[in-house]
Write a structure and sequence with these properties.
This protein has 722 residues and is of the alpha+beta class. Helices cover 47% and strands 13% of the residues. The strands form 3 sheets. Strands 9, 10, 11, 12, 13, 14, 15, 16, 17 and 18 form a 10-stranded mixed sheet that branches. Strands 1, 2, 5, 6, 7 and 8 form a 6-stranded mixed sheet that branches. A two-stranded antiparallel ribbon has the order 3-4. Helix 4 crosses helix 5 and helix 7 packs parallel to helix 15. The protein binds adenosine-5'-diphosphate (ADP) and magnesium ion.
Length: 722
Amino acid sequence: MSGNEARLRAISAVINYQPISEPLNFADTPTGELFGSNVFNTAVMQQRLPKGVYKSLMRTIKQGAALDLSTADAVANGMKDWAISKGATHYAHVFYPLTGRTAEKHDSFLSPTGGNSAIAEFSGAQLIQGEPDGSSFPTGGLRPTFEARGYTAWDITSPAYILENANGTILCIPTAFVSWNGEALGKKTPMLRSMKALNKQTQRILTLFGDDDGALVTTSAGAEQEYFLIDQNFYYARPDLLNAGRTLFGAPSPKGQEFDDHYFGAIPERVLACMLEVEHELFKLGIPIKTRHNEVAPGQYEMAPIHEDANVATDHQQLTMTMLARMATKYGMVCLTHEKPFAGVNGSGKHINFSFGNATQGNLLEPGDTPQDNARFLIFCAAVIRAANKYAPLLRSVVASAGNDHRLGANEAPPAIISIFLGQQLTEVFEQIKAGGPKPAQSKDVLNIGVDTLPPLPLHSGDRNRTSPLAFTANRFEFRAVGSNQSIAGPLMVLNTIVAESLDYIATKLEANTGDFDLAVQAVLHEIMVEHGRIIFDGDGYADAWQEEAAKRGLPNFRTTVDALPASSDAEAIALYRKYEVMSEREVRSRLDVYWEQYIMAIKVEAKLIVEMATTMIYPTALRYQTELATAVASTRAVGLDADTTMLKNLLDEMNGLQESVSLLEKNLTHHDDDLAAEAKHMGRVVVPSMTAVRTRVDALEAIIADDLWPLPTYQEMMFIR
Ligand code: ADP
Ligand code: MG
């Protein structure tokens, strides 16, 4: 399909868009009834499982104990009957490999019983453990293909659900992906382990403050997903979108996002229909989608659920991405979750809202009503401040990817420098803590925390800073540096672990204190502010002044994946993960290998696409236009008139430049280094700039070649025809 044809088809798709033949009717099934209707949740379990089995399962879920096989058998049986009543013929263990995607292996319930008959069977053993071959998933050497297969183990804390397809339904079981000796091959296991670490350390702090009922502390996460929707005709006409998820060429559209007329504007009809159906399906799966709106760039949108337990939120986030992709196709569009599908307009992120708490104390990042509660709140807040400063390189490394390099440190939200935004009031409080030393309390009922009392913090602070990578927003931290295409498991795992380490540090100090508790609390807050306060920055993160200021403060500034990734597995990171039993050294190192490989592959694919498209689409087009121009010049001269050859000369210049830049890129691509870090460095420092050089030529050609010849859908078309 040529660019022209794609354009005509997309225009006709938009103009002739008809609502689907059987429109959804939310009135048929009220949302309350719809919500969770395809989930094997506690209510369904209570109804379907024998009392004893249900109780023992609940105990297992709450205490994280192992499930015995007879209970598992009974649960499996109840689950199977429920699934079959919903039309399921198959079950699937769903797992989360290091690619960041979702993987699943389907098995039929059918078991032959001899003769020609078969019965539906699903045992406890099949429920709790699966054996997908999956030997092609990256494991960074944890599991050589010849050695053994990976196993999937049921994660009881994330509910099973039914996934519908027009031709049948599937029982899906969330699982952890592990090797035969229990090493984590996927994203889920380290995240669960980090939740455990955070619980353990938080309990120590709670005990110090007298809240020692031991109620399990969990992390809450709410992830805002940004994405683009474009007409699928454009997508299929662009090999770069199809294979790399982003445009590698494209001159800027005369109109970009400068009018801000798309942001929070009316959602286009077809897009809204698609969103409604996405949400309809996600509601069935018990995913509490709450907000939807247009984002800054034309064709860009955002959706966010209500926050949930981090493990469930992570699985739900993966499902959300899957559903967006599926439904977009149904409506003739494609969902782009790449961090930077289009140069020159905003890219996409995935802000993770992060807090932790338990059933009896609520959210521990919520400022309290009493001085006592506020002191506790400040301790938890200080733990995050210390964690972000001490482990800034680790936080930066967990959001490093080829895609996210186009956002972080590249003139986009947020900068590559990790800093914390606290808002004016909280900053003042912490500044006072830093300035003052510990002071004895004036009266018995005032817990002196270095300031007289904590001013009431407004819950919905209008005081927002959109440029900060880690912002405190009323009762949670929002980690904004996460890429739109990323699994949130990694960032959550790092946040949990580094905060656990800080809480450990603080608890150890406070536990050792034999004097006045309030003074000890003040002293530790003061000390943290003196040592780690440099991470707090409330100004404009985009300004050049911040780059200089951050350098003065000694804050690391890792602009690209090449610089940022090593910190994910340096000695400090390994020691941290080992100490809190989140990952073994082997697990940590294997991940670095996988992430280097992913980076290298991403750049290589893009570079090869650039060579291919430039050689087989762009240059031939330029050649055709050259012939047209040359013919025009010749025919003008043939009738004895002067011909202007400026256009032709410009064209030839750019064509020569294109050929040269493509040759250089091809040459740079022949380099190979067995050492992954060195290979990645070559990709980032040598190949990426030579890709940009080709792009500059192609974009210049796009600006001068006749529109009807241009082979690719343009930025203008892709972003505005919808
Ligand atoms: P904004 O765009 O203003 O940041 P959104 O409504 O788009 O806000 O998203 C906010 C996200 O933060 C939602 O997913 C919301 O549920 C989540 N959230 C709110 N409170 C908490 C909390 N205490 N812990 C974790 N996430 C939270
Ligand atoms: Mg938002």
